[in-house]
C-alpha cells in the first residue's frame, strides 16, 4: 500500500481552503479515479498529468490510481490541482522523497510537455495557505510576479515539472532570482489637461475624488463625458499596499491579472458596456462564482456610459454594493462575498437624440420623450448620487482657449491634501471618506456653519430636498470644505454642494 | 485475428496456466467459449476459490500497458461470463474472483508475467 500526499488550494470567491491531495496506488486494472467533487477542467487533469509525467521521463503507474481531494464536500474547480496531483502520484509510486514535499503548497496547471502554465487566483490562494500555516509554495514561473507579492512566504517559481522534480529530489534550483518589489505606478494615465473647458464637471470630479461621491454626467454626445470619467482614477490618491493587494486579489480571481500589473497602485477603471447583464455587473456564475464589474472596480471607478440604455434592473442591482461596499452572491454552490467599494460614474445623454442642450433647438424628441429618458434612472439609484453635472457642448470660446486646464498631477495633489485633512478629522473613527459619514454623526458632530445649515433648513421647509438629500448635501459640503481648506463647510460650500446635488445649471 | 497473433495469445495463456499450476492451483477450464465471449483460464486456487483469468499477451509496451486494453465494458463482460461459467458448471454460489495477467514476450523468446488478483 502506497499513499502520496501534497497540498493544494481550492478557491471559493476570494476565500481559499487548503486541500489535501492524496494519491493511492493499488493493485487492479489500470484506472484513475478522482474524488472530491471536481469540475470538468479538474476531471481532465488525469490526461494532462499523465502526459506531463510520461514526457518528463517519469513512469506512470499502470495500476489502479485513486486520487482524493479533501475536504471531500468542497466543490473544486480549475486546473490548479494538476501540479499537486502529479506530486502526490509520484510520491505514492515512491519516485520522490516525501520529506521535502511536506508542508509545501503546489499550484499550477500542467502542459502536456510538463511545463507549468499560469492559473487564476494565485494571490488569494497564497493568502489562504499562509493563514493555514504553510510557508513555502511552488508556483508557475509565469505567475511569479503576482506570487511574490506574498512576501511573508518562500515562493519557488518553477518553469516545468522536471525543474520541480530536480528540486524535490536533489534540492537544486536552476534559477535563483530576486525580483524588485515596489508599488508600480507607471500605468498609462489619461491627463486632465486634455479636457477643454467643462469647469463644473472638472470640479465635480475633484470633489468626487476627495469624498468618494458618486457622479452623474449629463450632456450631448461629444461633450467630454467619457474623457472626464476616464481621468477620474488618475486624480484618486494612489492605493496603499493593503488596498493594492486587495484589488490584485480580485483581478487575479477574475482573469489571472492579465489586464492589470500585479501590484499596481493605480485605482482601477472599469467601464462595462450598457448591454451588460446583471451577472456581468455584480458577479455570478453557476459553478464558480466570479467577480463582476462592480468588484473589479473596487477602490476605483465604475463608469457606465449611456446609463439610461442599460437593461431593466442592471443599474439597480448596484444599489446593494453602493450601500454596503461589498456584494454577496448566492448560488446553489454556495454564497460568496466580494468587496465592491467603488465610485460610480454614470453618463447620460439629455434625451434620446442627444441634442436637448442649450436651448435645445436641434432636438427632435418630443417633450414627453425628453422627460421619460432620464427617468429611466430609478429614484432610489439617483438618490445615492451626490453630484449631478451638466456637461454642455463646448462653445467656440472654450475651444479657442490655448491655455490648458490643470493637469492630473496638480489636481491629484489637491485631492491628496484634502484627504489628509479628512484623515485627521476622522482619526479614531471607522470611516475614512466624507461620503461614508453616518447621518447620526453628521447631525451631532459634523455640522456645517450655521449660515449653511439655515440655508439647508430653508430648502427642507420649502420641500425642495428630503431628509436624506439634506444629509447627502452635508457630506458633499465637507468634501468641498476640505478642498477649500475650510475648517467647517461655509455657506458657499453648502450652496455649491446643493447645486451639484440638484443638478442646477450655473 | 491473424494466426500469428493467435499463436502469441495461446502462448501467453499456456504460460499463465503453467504459472498457476506452480502456485498450486488446479486448472478447471481453458478457453471456455460461449456466444458472449471467452474465458481464457479458469482455475481452482489453493484457497478453494475459483479464479477466472483474463490473459493479455504483448511483445512490447509500444501500445501501452496490456492491461489498459481491458476497458470497463470488457471488465463487465468478464463478470457476466464468470457467472455463466459458474451456472453451467453447477457451482453457482461458490466464492470466485476475476484476475488479470499480462504476459510480455521479450525479443529473445523469454517472457514475464504480471499477475493481478481480484481486479474487479
Largest interface: A-B, 7 and 11 residues
Strand content of chain A: 15-25%
Number of strands of chain B: 5
Q: How would you sum up the global shape of chain B?
A: globular
What fraction, in percent, of the residue positions of chain A are helical? Answer: 25-40%
Seen as an oligomer or otherwise, the chain set is heterodimer
Q: Which class do the helix and strand fractions of chain A yield?
A: alpha/beta
Give the name of the CATH architecture of chain B.
3-Layer(aba) Sandwich
What is the residue-averaged pLDDT of chain B? 90
Number of strands of chain A: 18
Head-to-tail CA distance between termini of chain B: 27 Å
Number of helices of chain A: 20
Individual helix count of chain B: 2
> Outline of chain A, from the CA principal axes?
elongated
Query: For this structure, what is the CATH homologous superfamily of the largest domain in chain A?
Result: P-loop containing nucleotide triphosphate hydrolases
| Annotated CATH architecture of the largest domain in chain A | 3-Layer(aba) Sandwich
CATH topology of the largest domain in chain A: Rossmann fold
Helix-strand string of chain B: HEEEHEE
Give the secondary structure arrangement, pairings included.
The complex is a heterodimer of chains A (506) and B (120).
Chain A: E1 2-12, E2 15-26, E3 31-35, H1 40-43, H2 45-55, E4 64-70, H3 82-92, E5 104-106, E6 109-110, E7 116-117, H4 122-131, E8 136-140, H5 144-147, E9 154-158, H6 161-170, H7 199-211, E10 215-218, H8 225-235, H9 241-255, E11 269-270, H10 278-282, E12 283-284, E13 290-291, H11 293-296, E14 301-304, H12 319-324, E15 326-331, E16 334-339, E17 343-348, H13 367-375, H14 379-383, E18 387-390, H15 396-400, H16 408-425, H17 439-444, H18 450-461, H19 467-484, H20 491-502
Parallel strand pairs in A: 3-4, 5-8, 8-9, 10-17, 10-18, 11-14, 14-17
Antiparallel strand pairs in A: 1-2, 2-4, 6-7, 12-13, 15-16
Chain B: H1 3-22, E1 26-34, E2 37-44, E3 50-58, H2 72-88, E4 96-105, E5 111-116
Parallel strand pairs in B: 3-4
Antiparallel strand pairs in B: 1-2, 2-3, 4-5
Amino acid at each position: 500500500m502506497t499513499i502520496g500526499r501534497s497540498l493544494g488550494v481550492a478557491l471559493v470567491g476570494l476565500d481559499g481552503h487548503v486541500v489535501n491531495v492524496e494519491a493511492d496506488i493499488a493493485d487492479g486494472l489500470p484506472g484513475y479515479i478522482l474524488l472530491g467533487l471536481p469540475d470538468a477542467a479538474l476531471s481532465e487533469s488525469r490526461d494532462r498529468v499523465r502526459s506531463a509525467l510520461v514526457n518528463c521521463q517519469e513512469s506512470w503507474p499502470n495500476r489502479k490510481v485513486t486520487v482524493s481531494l479533501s475536504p471531500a464536500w468542497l466543490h473544486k474547480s480549475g486546473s490548479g490541482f494538476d501540479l499537486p496531483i502529479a506530486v502526490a502520484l509520484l510520491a505514492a509510486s515512491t519516485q520522490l522523497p516525501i520529506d521535502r514535499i511536506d508542508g509545501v503548497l503546489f499550484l499550477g496547471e500542467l502542459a502536456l510537455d510538463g511545463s507549468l502554465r499560469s492559473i487564476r487566483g494565485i494571490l488569494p490562494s497564497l493568502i489562504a495557505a499562509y493563514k493555514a500555516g504553510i510557508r513555502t509554495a511552488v508556483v508557475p514561473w509565469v505567475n511569479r510576479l503576482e506570487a511574490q507579492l506574498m512576501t511573508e512566504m518562500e515562493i519557488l517559481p518553477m518553469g516545468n515539472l522536471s525543474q520541480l522534480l530536480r528540486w524535490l529530489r536533489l534540492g537544486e534550483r536552476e534559477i535563483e532570482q530576486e525580483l524588485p518589489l515596489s508599488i508600480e505606478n507607471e500605468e498609462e494615465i489619461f491627463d486632465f489637461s486634455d479636457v477643454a473647458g467643462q469647469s463644473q464637471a472638472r470640479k465635480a470630479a475633484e470633489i468626487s475624488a476627495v469624498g468618494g461621491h458618486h457622479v452623474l454626467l449629463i450632456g450631448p454626445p461629444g461633450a467630454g463625458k467619457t474623457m472626464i470619467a476616464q481621468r477620474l482614477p488618475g486624480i484618486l490618491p494612489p492605493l496603499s499596499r493593503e488596498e493594492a493587494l486587495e484589488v490584485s486579489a480580485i483581478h487575479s480571481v477574475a482573469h489571472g491579472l492579465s489586464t492589470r500589473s500585479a501590484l499596481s497602485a493605480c485605482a482601477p477603471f472599469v467601464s462595462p458596456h450598457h448591454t451588460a447583464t446583471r451577472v456581468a455587473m455584480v458577479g455570478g456564475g453557476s459553478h464558480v462564482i466570479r467577480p463582476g464589474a462592480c468588484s473589479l472596480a473596487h477602490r476605483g471607478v465604475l463608469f457606465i456610459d449611456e446609463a439610461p440604455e442599460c437593461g431593466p434592473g442592471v443599474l439597480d442591482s448596484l444599489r446593494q454594493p453602493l450601500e454596503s461596499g461589498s456584494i454577496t452572491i448566492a448560488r446553489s454552490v454556495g454564497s460568496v462575498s466580494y468587496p465592491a467599494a467603488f465610485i460610480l460614474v454614470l453618463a447620460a445623454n439629455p434625451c434620446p437624440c442627444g441634442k436637448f442642450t442649450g436651448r435645445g433647438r436641434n432636438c427632435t424628441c418630443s417633450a414627453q420623450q425628453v422627460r421619460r429618458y432620464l427617468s429611466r434612472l430609478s429614484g432610489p439609484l439617483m438618490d445615492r448620487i451626490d453630484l449631478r453635472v451638466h456637461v454642455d457642448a463646448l462653445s467656440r470660446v472654450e475651444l479657442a482657449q490655448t491655455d490648458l486646464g490643470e493637469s492630473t498631477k496638480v489636481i491629484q495633489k489637491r485631492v491628496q491634501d484634502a484627504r489628509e485633512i479628512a484623515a485627521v478629522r476622522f482619526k479614531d473613527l471607522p470611516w475614512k471618506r466624507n461620503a461614508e459619514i453616518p447621518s447620526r454623526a453628521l447631525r451631532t458632530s459634523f455640522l456645517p456653519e450655521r449660515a449653511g445649515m439655515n440655508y439647508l433648513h430653508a430648502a427642507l421647509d420649502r420641500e425642495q430636498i428630503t431628509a436624506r438629500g439634506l444629509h447627502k448635501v452635508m457630506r458633499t459640503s465637507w468634501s468641498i470644505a476640505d478642498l477649500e481648506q475650510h475648517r467647517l463647510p461655509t455657506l458657499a460650500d453648502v450652496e455649491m454642494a446643493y447645486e451639484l446635488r440638484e443638478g442646477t445649471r450655473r | 485475428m491473424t494466426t500469428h497473433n493467435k499463436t502469441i495469445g495461446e502462448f501467453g495463456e499456456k504460460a499463465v496456466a503453467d504459472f498457476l499450476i506452480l502456485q498450486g492451483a488446479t486448472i478447471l477450464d481453458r478457453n471456455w467459449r460461449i456466444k458472449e465471449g471467452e474465458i481464457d483460464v479458469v482455475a481452482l486456487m489453493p484457497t478453494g476459490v475459483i479464479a477466472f483469468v483474463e490473459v493479455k499477451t504483448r511483445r512490447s509496451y509500444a501500445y501501452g500497458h496490456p492491461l489498459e486494453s481491458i476497458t470497463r465494458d470488457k471488465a463487465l463482460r468478464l463478470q457476466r461470463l464468470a457467472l455463466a461459467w459458474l451456472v453451467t458448471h453447477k457451482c453457482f454460489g461458490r466464492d470466485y474472483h476475476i484476475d488479470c495477467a499480462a504476459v510480455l514476450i521479450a525479443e529473445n523468446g523469454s517472457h514475464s508475467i504480471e499477475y493481478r488478483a481480484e481486479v474487479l
